[in-house]
Amino acid sequence: MRFSLKRVVAISAIPLLGGALAVGATAPTASAQTWRDTALTAFNVVQPSTSTTTGAVINAVAGGGGSRLSFTAPSGEAFAASRTLSKTGGFDATLTTSNVHRLVLTAGGFGSGRATLTFTIKSMTGATCTATETVKITETSGVLAESAAPTSVPGEQVAVRVFNDNATGAVQFAGAVTAQYCTVAFSQGNLPAGLASGNPLVPGSAYPRVYTGVVYTATDPLGSTFSGTFSLHVFGHVVVPPGNYGDMVNPFGNGFDVYQQHEYAGAIVAGWTATQADPATHFIRLPGTVPGAYKFEYAPNGVASGLCVSDPGGGWASDPLPDGLILTTSNNGPWQQFIPLPDGMLKNVATGLIVSPDGTGAQLRGTAAATSWGGSVYTWTDYAHLPW
């Protein structure tokens, strides 16, 4: 049933489209066919609060039976002039040697106590990037040790922006650490199968649907990392074997039709004239798990929805008939599988009922016997042979 539905995707973080199916990023695909993504859209971006780890310094203990503790900056990084040592108890070590690449603590005797070393690390190449970090140190009878590895001082934040590119269908990440003006590199984790981490994040072969809990990580030149989450909507086409994109059509030209193109679980499947021009009558025929059975996935304009024709036997508020046909989330259950019979009838595997119409525009339903006027005879018609 043709129905005008306009969709606009802005180049920004957008809200969830109404009626879309949201699942975790690691959810398995509903069927084994191959997908070709046409676009990705990111939204619900959660900003990280502070950095979670740092790779800014390498730590080593050497000399005097542990009386010296050195901190060495990695290649391309150096210590800034700003550094302090806050002592408590009988901690008597001092910063006895320091230069731009190494800080050295030396115990003064046999003291015991705790201290916090606060320092600033900076990049040596390109635009200077700085980060303030702290490390916890203990001294026990003149022996020095780290009690906690260096961590970024609370307050360091990265401002993340996400752009949805309408031209390429990719998602672009941008951002910088707010106080230190450090540019950051982005990667993604917990992605659905078929997508590879990168910036931009580009379409691949993921199953088309909405994925929640996808993780992004921003890493600055000093090794500090910031992580947050976002939701990802994958829009895609199924790579369909020839002849498996079309509709089931009866002798009167009426086929499976998703009422008013309602793309959600529970949408009514009615009988309506099947045409190339009407996206509501576009389906993908998939092999079922029962020998000889098929599933019919709603695919307006060739874009798979993840929703299949089903006779769930009632129980849905949107379904006015006990055995009315509706869309449900694609799975391998018998309610979504139909066996074409030699006489042209289409039998549901779970109910054993025949798919029958009740006139143009009415919901299709399962019946114990076929219609007397021939409407229950269905033939698969591929898209190329549907009328315009």
Overview of this protein structure:
The chain is mainly β and 388 residues long. It folds into three domains: 22-49 and 156-236, no CATH class; 58-152; 245-385, Trefoil (Acidic Fibroblast Growth Factor, subunit A). The protein has no helices and 28 strands. It has strands at 22-24, 34-43, 58-61, 68-72, 77-89, 94-98, 102-106, 113-123, 130-140, 143-152, 158-164, 171-177, 182-183, 185-189, 210-219, 225-239, 245-249, 254-258, 269-273, 283-287, 294-298, 307-310, 326-329, 338-340, 346-348, 354-356, 365-367, 379-382. Strands 1, 2, 14, 15 and 16 form a five-stranded mixed β-sheet that branches. A hairpin with a 2-residue loop joins strand 9 and strand 10 (143-152). The protein starts with 21 loop residues before the first strand and ends in a 6-residue tail after the last strand. Mean pLDDT is 83; it is low at 1-21 and 26-32.
